[in-house]
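Design request, tokens follow.
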């Protein structure tokens, strides 16, 4: 494992910097992403705790005609589940205040080294909705975080952006970002450990259901993601181990 070069900013007790500068990048007429550098202080200290205490699991997914291991570890929580660090609840509250929306449960993805990755994708349960929020806080090593536009009808051109979030940086993908854009974390030759903590929100009439692939442990099943009011709350009737399928970076 490559040692992660730490900064004094990322050590100490986790705390949100309410005065952090937020840059909004317009991706297209319906999609945007907010970037707040150094939004969470103490992110490296939080990484250390989560690496040691979370019940990390490696999912499996179908690729063509065979099942393969996910090249990273994950853990997703339901509302009411005990969280492995008190800062996770504080971050969710801060995001709700900042965005004026109530986010769903947290999901954690652990990239152990440069060989762990996630392919370009859009979130399955949000990709047909044009008013969504996906908030990602990075803990640990800086890695490429690539956004690329999906080809539009009549045009084969794609636009690509690398946001490369560092430890403590906040990204919020908004609007129709999951409809027209894909995001991914590619493999790199060398990298230290990185965790991404993710929260979601979606605007949809009560009772909306969208089919989504749910991956947990060694199972691969198709479940149903339920949006109650405007909060993505999870899967029903088919998930194994209570995980909500999601490949956010």
């Amino acid at each position: 494992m490559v040692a992660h070069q730490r900064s004094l900013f990322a050590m100490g007790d986790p705390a949100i910097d309410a005065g952090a500068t937020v840059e909004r990048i317009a991706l297209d007429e319906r999609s945007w992403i907010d970037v707040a550098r150094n939004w969470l202080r103490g992110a490296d200290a939080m990484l250390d705790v989560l690496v040691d205490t979370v019940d990390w699991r490696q999912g499996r997914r179908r690729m063509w005609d065979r099942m393969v291991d996910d090249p990273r570890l994950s853990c997703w929580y339901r509302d009411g589940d005990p969280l492995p660090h008190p800062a996770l609840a504080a971050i969710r509250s801060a995001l709700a205040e900042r965005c004026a929306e109530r986010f769903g449960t947290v999901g954690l993805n652990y990239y152990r080294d440069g060989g762990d990755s996630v392919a370009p994708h859009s979130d399955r349960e949000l990709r047909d909705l044009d008013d969504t929020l996906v908030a990602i806080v990075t803990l640990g090593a800086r890695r490429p975080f690539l956004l690329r536009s999906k080809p539009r009808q009549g045009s084969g051109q794609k636009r690509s952006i690398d946001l490369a979030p560092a430890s403590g940086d906040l990204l919020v993908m908004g609007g129709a970002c999951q409809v027209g854009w894909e995001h991914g974390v590619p493999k790199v030759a060398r990298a230290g450990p990185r965790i991404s903590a993710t929260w979601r929100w979606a605007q949809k009439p009560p009772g909306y259901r969208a089919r989504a692939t749910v991956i947990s442990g060694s199972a691969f099943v198709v479940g149903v993601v339920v949006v109650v009011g405007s909060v993505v709350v999870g899967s029903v009737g088919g998930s194994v181990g209570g995980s909500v399928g999601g490949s956010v970076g």
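Comment from the thread starter after seeing the answer: thanks! Confidence is low (pLDDT under 50) at residues 212-229, 233-245.
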